[in-house]
Design goal:
The complex is a heterodimer of chains A (about 210) and B (about 325).
Chain A (H helix, E strand, L loop, with lengths): L4 E6 L8 H10 L11 E7 L7 E7 L8 H5 L5 E3 L5 E3 L9 H5 L6 E3 L1 H10 L10 E3 L5 H4 L6 H5 L5 E5 L6 H8 L2 E3 L10 E4 L1 H5 L1
Parallel strand pairs in A: 1-10
Antiparallel strand pairs in A: 1-8, 2-3, 4-5, 6-7, 9-10
Chain B lengths: L4 E3 L6 H27 L3 H24 L8 H4 L3 H4 L4 H26 L1 H4 L2 H9 L1 H9 L1 H21 L14 H26 L6 H30 L3 H10 L3 H24 L6 H24 L2 E3 L15
Antiparallel strand pairs in B: 1-2
Helix pairs in contact in B: 1-2, 1-9, 1-10, 1-14, 2-5, 2-10, 5-8, 5-9, 9-10, 10-11, 10-14, 11-12, 11-13, 13-14
The chains are: A alpha+beta (about 210), B mainly alpha (about 325).
């Protein structure tokens, strides 16, 4: 059986250092100059003034859905899914119609324009590798995963808030957390069957 | 997750509304004019206006979409008809092919009429092309009925596509429901009736000769607007008492005077009343029907405009475009 990659994010241990954002931006050359990221950590406040208020850091990224609406609406086949569950964008095929961005419930898509390619050449220097505009997204760092490494955001996370693993391996920590029900996906009711799971900080503390 | 955030999008805005409006109008105009010509009353001028008008509308709409693409050269991937085998699940694949082939077949169908028309024959470049391809006109006449049906089928496909496109986006309650395709299809045919009434009253101007066609179009438009009003009422109910995303849409739509007065009032109710009076008692001058037709066309655009701007996403975090840049990146 092939792998079925997934990520578990433990909100109890995310400290909001944004190292994942930086690592991802450098690894995948995202257009950070216009504040667009493949992964982003929201700094949120939960609660009402006068009551108990909590600060939450909520990392977000492409959920690599098993039923990805961004893939079914893509007219060119640029958005495709690997056997291991990773959803990728082929920027040779992508014409940038943004239908995927409209379809994605997780707001995981970002535009890379001709202008961004030019700015990227200066920003990322000789390592710059983008050649075509596209509607970009997180790739679970497929190039690293296929080489046996973890995604850049997982490898750099100081709080070990991000775990990456194989749902088809019952001994994998990620598979165990998902099977236990502790880690839950976002907006599962939409039928997208996402592969990014969250361990809530509030559930553990109450 | 605890708190949810509700926001509209900024990927597809007015230019997609124009694209959907002109696509629906053009597709329906081709369907109506060719079917009228084949089965109701032969009318070469109406076909010329319908097909060439649709060609111009679809060209403008497609050009707007093309200009807004991020990677223009890659459009070749969706223009290739093989896309229907490689990506049959994407409505844009079907829509692109429907649009292209509707434009092709409707122009081939219209070609013999252009050859007969002094207006087109005398036109500098077009006249030369018509002379060069005169044989194609004869060939077209030989298979006119089949070609007409090919244009009609692709025209219906184009209209359906403009209705089904928004339904493909599951996160937005306003779009992801069976009412949207119905509403857009009915609206497309209503705007086509309005456009063709304008053509008959302002351009062709054969009032007595074309009276049966005008009466048919006016009656059909009254029925279509009635159906549209019913669907809009259903949407009012659906958005007001539905999912939270839909309720946020309701707050956007039903508190906006542009939607209530502009679309529902002047885009539907006023032309409905004018056309109903015309159907029941008639008008002594074409002016009221012309006015009503213009309102229907404006309403057709407003419907799509408001739909694009009122689709609300529900997420456990705010959207990217509303996030302030971190200081280090500024």
């Amino acid at each position: 059986m092939s792998q079925h990659y997934a990520m578990v994010i433990d909100l109890n241990t995310c400290v909001g250092c944004n190292a994942c954002m930086a690592a991802c931006a450098i690894e995948n050359q995202t257009p950070v100059w216009k504040n667009r990221w493949r992964t982003y950590v929201h700094d949120m406040v939960i609660g009402k003034p006068g009551g108990e208020i909590r600060r939450r850091f909520l990392p977000r990224l492409c959920n690599h859905c098993d039923n990805p609406p961004c893939m079914s609406v893509c007219p060119t086949g640029a958005t495709h899914k690997l056997d291991n569950g990773i959803v990728l964008v082929d920027d040779d095929l992508c014409m940038g119609c943004r239908a995927c961005a409209m379809a994605c419930p997780y707001d995981a898509r970002l535009e890379v324009t001709y202008e961004d390619i030019e700015i990227g050449k200066e920003f990322y220097g000789t390592l710059h590798h983008r050649s075509n505009p596209s509607v970009d997204k997180c790739s679970f760092c497929a190039h690293r995963v296929l080489a046996g490494r973890k995604p850049a955001c997982v490898e750099t996370c100081v709080g070990s808030a991000r775990l990456f693993g194989d749902l088809n391996d019952p001994n994998d920590e990620v598979a165990k957390l998902v099977a236990s029900g502790v880690a839950k996906p976002l907006m599962a009711h939409l039928g997208t069957r996402p592969n990014v799971y969250y361990i809530s900080d509030l559930e553990r503390s109450t | 997750m605890e708190g949810m955030f509700y926001s509209t999008q900024e990927f597809w805005t007015w230019w997609i509304a124009v694209y959907l409006f002109l696509g629906g109008l053009g597709g329906a105009a081709v369907v109506v004019t060719i079917l009228t010509n084949m089965y109701y009353k032969p009318h070469k001028q109406l076909v010329l206006w319908g097909s060439i008008g649709a060609f111009i509308m679809l060209s403008i709409g497609s050009l707007l979409l093309f200009v807004h693409l991020l990677h223009h050269l890659a459009v070749i991937n969706v223009l290739n008809p093989m896309v229907l085998i490689e990506k049959p699940d994407a409505w844009i694949s079907w829509g692109t092919q429907f649009i292209v082939w509707m434009m092709v077949w409707s122009m081939v169908y219209t070609f013999p009429y252009m050859l007969e028309s002094p207006f087109w024959a005398k036109m500098p470049v077009v006249g030369m092309i018509l002379n060069l391809f005169g044989w194609a006109g004869k060939l077209s006449l030989k298979f006119h009925s089949i070609i007409g049906w090919l244009a009609v089928i692709n025209g219906i496909g184009t209209v359906f596509y403009t209705g089904l496109l928004l339904q493909s986006f599951p996160a937005v309650a306003l779009w992801h429901n069976p009412g949207v395709p119905l509403l857009f299809i009915v609206s497309a045919f209503s705007t086509a009736m309005a456009f063709l009434l304008l053509v008959l009253d302002l351009a062709i101007k054969k009032r007595e000769e074309d009276r049966p066609i005008r009466v048919l179009y006016e009656r059909t438009d009254v029925i279509l607007i009635t159906v549209e009003l019913v669907i809009i009422f259903v949407f009012f109910h659906f958005t007001t008492y539905g999912l939270e995303s839909a309720r946020h849409t309701a707050q956007l739509l039903w508190q906006d005077m542009g939607w209530i007065v502009g679309f529902v009032g002047f885009g539907l109710l006023v032309p409905f009343m004018i056309e109903l009076k015309g159907v029941l008692k008639g008008w002594s001058s074409p002016a009221p029907v012309v006015f009503a037709a213009i309102l229907v066309l404006l309403g057709g655009y407003l419907l799509r405009h408001y739909f694009m701007y009122s689709g609300v996403y529900e997420r456990p975090y705010p959207p990217q475009h509303l996030i302030e840049a971190p200081p280090a990146v500024m």
